[in-house]
Amino acid sequence: MSIKIGILMGGPSEEHEVSINTGQSVYEACNALGYSATQFRFENDYKIFLDELKKQDIIFNALHGGMGEDGKIQAWMDKNHIKYTGSGAFASALCMDKARAKDIARISGVNTPDWELLYRSNDMPNLQLPLVIKPNKQGSTVGLTIVYNEISIKSAVDEAFQYGAEILVEKYVKGRELTVSIIGNNILPIVEILPMHDYYDYECKYTPGMSEYNCPADLDYSTEKLIKDNTKYLFHKFGCQIYGRADFILDERGVPLFLEMNTLPGMTSTSLVPKSALVHGMSFDELVYKIIKLSL
Fold this sequence. Notes:
The chain is of the alpha+beta class and 296 residues long.
């Protein structure tokens, strides 16, 4: 009898469409692997699927953004004894809170750009320009602005507040954008992202041809080792499980700075984890198989 996989996808976040794409890709891989796969698409209320989800051997969590990545669905599935892929409730909530994750990274001796939190739209940052202004608990660069002059601060703060109650103001660091995927105990080859825009924004992430990728990234041995060691250390420090992806910026002095840990990275044709896995010698289907096997 084949293993029953339920794929939870959609949700109310700004990343609804990305989640649908991830879910569809995973669904096709599950069918190719011989699993009995069912899609569970929703807009707002996932709880309507409770009885059906309980009948599955495991739920592949293909959600992105707030709901699905913030630990609430994980806690609900734990309560209802439903197995699922990826990190648990605590690690998911922690990594969704970028400021908290940065705090732990800094205390642990991992470099990260200076930052502060704003709680009211009329608060002004204390950090020196240029700045990155973004919602503290949001994914896919939604609501993110790079600010080079004082005139633009207010509109950037207002934009970010549309997507959350706390705003992360981070010192903008010019450098190379790097991302590191981890599956089980394996750190996959580092990917360098070369976006068409100033930074790896929503359009560059999800539009084929809007970014180039170098994998493995051209790094000297000690830098590569430091980034991989930091990724593995933080992944375990945050309590993450199964798979994830850490983002770094390599500043102009060659110092890697931790930005964030993604507990539910994208799994579409343009996504970074599958790109890295392929260079590692792992096809998309094998990657999905590995995530399911480790989660079970």
